Amino acid sequence: MNKLYYGDCLTIMAGMAPASVDLVYLDPPFNSNRDYNAIYKDETGRPLPDQIEAFSDLWQLDGERERAIRYLPVRLREAGVDNGAAESIRLWMAALRHAQPRMLAYVSYMAERLTAMRRLLKPNGSIYLHCDPTASHYIKVTMDGLFGSGSFRKEIVWRRTSGHSDAKTLGSVHDTILFYSMSEHFTYNVQYTDYDEAYIARRYRRADADGRRWMDDNLSAKGLRGGGYEYEYKGATSLWRVPIERMRELDAEGRLHFTSRGGIGIKRYLDEMRGAPLTDVWTDIPPINSQARERLGYATQKPLALLDRIVRASTNPGETVFDPFCGCATTMEAAHRLGRRWIGIDIAIHAVKRVAKVRLADRLGLVEGRDFEIDGIPRDLEGATDLWRRDPYQFQKWAVEEVDGFVTARRTGDGGVDGRLYFDLPGERDLRSMVLEAKGGARVGVSAVRDLRGVLERYGAPMAGLILLREPGPARRRNFAAEMAKAGDIEALGVRYPRMQMLTVAEILDGRRFATPSVARAARGAAEPNLPGVG
Q1: Rounded distance, CA 500 to CA 449, Å?
Q2: Could you report the per-residue pLDDT of 56-89, keeping only the tens digit for each?
Q3: Which residue from 390, 394, 424 is spatially nearest to 495, judged by alpha carbons?
Q4: Rounded distance, CA 241 to CA 220, Å?
Q5: Which of 30, 93, 278, 442 is most exposed by smallest CB count within 10 Å?
């Protein structure tokens, strides 16, 4: 069955069967702050300024990245990457450390995940990686090492816009798509594009009485290997490409052209031609119009026609298409419409929920449980506990997003803030926020509440919320409540809200939410007040 996963694709790919997908398409994050903030602004109707700084720090050489870089040679060896190629990757990444540390953070992130994708591809499978010129050359070096330079097929240039003005340099109008295969025996179905007007005007100069345009093609077999058929037809004698029976059929169909010099040609009608074979420069697929029906609010959303072309070219009906950064799921829609199976992963629960409703249910008429499954979203306390054990960071993300909050992208150095929940205060122009922290440990003491209270004061936030995986005992809950009460209340429209609040995962799964003024929700639609004592 088709699958939509919530989670980090690196974690999820580890549980997928090797050699199980026919095509990988990925449009991975680079300028993530640009994309995610556009989504959040679209969802809430208001910009979320605090997130800009958080997402701009996504590519840092923090402790987690450093550990991943040290472990990368092991991953490469386990994946069967040639020792020489693995060593070359290690050496040029070392060169990036001082020259471009942020690029090293990004490239190492991608190398981990590309190694996992390599394991999933079938021997005749292909991978298309979509990127902009900022990082495409770094990614190509990485992919040459992982897949082998002999597996490189094409660098596709997609002209995503016809005009763009940059004040101090050339206008940026294209993206790069790197196309690799697992072997020489890869699937490729030739695609065609419409002839351009100049070509049509030059080659299809004639037309029948009904307006059908055609070009004259040669019927002579002179010089062709294998010879032809020698005979006379209506005064013209030659070595023909077709036998006389076929010549008569073409004549009866009105497809012969008798030239002024006594020769005979065949009419090739424009409306019967498949078009020009596709090249590696794609100029015929425009970006999505801002008002287009398929737009879901992603700043970097790709048009359905682009994915349709890639899926047609590199898969056959019934085969499996995989997008590990599926975002708004354009790849999934293209695959479904073309009769392919699909697997998608996204790290944002807002995206997964939105895709399931808008793209899969409303747009395609698919039913969860019948046409596709969603995996990775905890449905009960056991599922949440399992997520915490497998990936504590992903648990924090899920908990924050489940209460309609927005995640802080930094995994370390976040100052005790795992996310924020945004809301309106009457008379204030900007959205305000409740800082959120999620704890999954077995024993969370009152010191955690004191620390969160310190965060509340340090950031000058109006509110703070603590999420606990495990239910605290009665005594500990009383201690938590007493410590939180010291932070006081805020008032909005005559309603008082505790500045510090706590919810357990069990309460969240039961529908409870933090009590705040009108919440700018991403997953649940229009803003509405969350009143004290109301879910």
Answers
A1: 9
A2: 446 788 888 898 898 888 888 888 888 888 888 8
A3: 424
A4: 6
A5: 442
User: CA 368 from chain center: how many Å?
Assistant: 21
Instruction: Read off the pTM.
Output: 0.80
SS3 224: coil
Give the Cα separation of 54 and 414 in Å (integer): 8
Residue 429 reports pLDDT greater than 80: no
The amino acid that residue 355 corresponds to is V
Measured distance CA(62)–CA(60) in Å, rounded: 5
Q: What is the CA radius of gyration of the chain?
A: 30
- CA-to-CA distance for 508 and 427, rounded, in angstroms? 30
Q: Which two three-digit tokens encode residue 190?
A: 């030739």
User: Mapped to the 3 state alphabet, what secondary structure does 138-204 carry?
Assistant: HHHHHHHHHHCHHHEEEEEEEECCCCCCCCCCCCCCEEEEEEEECCCCCCCCCCEECCCHHHHHHHC
pLDDT single digits (tens) 130-185: 998 888 999 999 999 999 889 999 999 999 876 666 667 788 888 999 999 999 99
List pLDDT tens digits, range 455-491.
Answer: 888 888 899 999 999 999 899 999 999 999 999 999 8
Angle between helices 330-337 and 304-314 (to 10 degrees): 50
Asked whether the beta carbons of 351 and 376 are under 8 A apart, the reply is no
Give whole-number Cα distances, 155 to 136, 178, 278, 345, 402, in Å: 10, 5, 13, 25, 40
Q: Is 379 helix (H, G, I), strand (E, B) or coil?
A: coil
Token readout for 417 is 């803030």
**Which of 441, 397, 440 minimizes the C-alpha distance to 418?**
397
C-alpha 58/C-alpha 502 separation (Å) is 28
For residue 355, what is the DSSP state?
I
The distance from CA 363 to its chain's CA centroid, rounded to whole angstroms, is: 18
Location of structure tokens 């449009």: 27
Q: Mark residue 223 as left, alpha or beta (left: phi above 0; alpha: psi -120 to 50; beta: remaining).
A: left
Residues 321 and 311: beta-carbon distance below 8 Å: yes
- Can you read off the two tokens belonging to residue 142? 């990485």
**DSSP element (H, E) containing 306:** helix 304-314
d(CA 2, CA 12): 15
* Local structure of 82: helix, strand or coil: coil
